[in-house]
Amino acid sequence: MTSSxxxxxxxxxxxxxxxxxxxxxxxxxxxxxxxSMLFAKTWSQCASLxxxxxxxxxxxxxxxxxxxxxxxxxPYNTSTSRKPLPVKVPTxxxxxxxxxxxxxxxxxxxGIYPDGPRPEITLDQFGxxxxxxxxxxFDSDTAKYSGSPGAAFGRMIHVTTVRxxxxxxxxxxxxxxxxxxxxxxxxxxxxxxxxxxWVFSRTINGxxxxxxxxxxxxxxxxxxxxxxxxxxxxxxxxREVDASSPKSGSIEIRNFSPQAxxxxxxxxxxxxxxxxREIDDAIWAKLEAWRLKK
Length: 294
Fold this sequence. Notes:
Layout: H1 2-15, H2 25-42, H3 45-62, H4 66-69, E1 93-97, E2 102-106, E3 121-122, E4 125-131, E5 156-163, E6 168-171, E7 174-177, H5 186-193, E8 199-204, E9 207-211, E10 221-227, E11 233-239, E12 250-257, E13 262-269, H6 276-290
């Protein structure tokens, strides 16, 4: 009986090499019962050995579970390749009111939103984005950057603030004048932008640029001042980079225009610093075109 039992266990093990291995627990239980009967009748070392050998054989055969070779299909879509969702670029405008002036801004300069009626909004400030080389808002090409602006860093101009300047604020019930640099006065901004010890380094598209003593940590750091197309002073600073590394630095601008009566704050990749005047012109041209005339 022992030899026949071991033979059956051997056949069970050899059957596990089939293309569709499966663990027949009913058969396993039946074999244990047979072995137990043999063990009870003989109480011999051979039977005991057969019992444990049978258990080990069946467990070894069951180790290769069916799901390892033929995984069940998940009721959910586990595919990592996703088709991009269709995006409809908005074509309508949004009316934004600042304290003393209003703007009709095309929605595609503020993001990808569905068309449809939107209420007019009164704000202290607003922002928008546009893309090089044509200074357009989101279109069918750049819509893919709507949820991941970092991917468009080399092309995006991010205007974070457009607001009317605030010259004073109330403190303990009394109006207190704010520092001129806080509302973007160019001369005041230049004084706080250029630290002591910085020296003239070069000219970028007509702007005088200064840099700190070179170290491994401030390479490409600049502070510049130049004339806007309307003759006003423009201050910009940040970290200049070469075209091979467009994500390692950015240029920041905080500037007040006396002619427009607005303060703007915006940034763009340091790789585009040579276009500082063209970028500035494009921002003010958009604001002028969007402004609602009374």
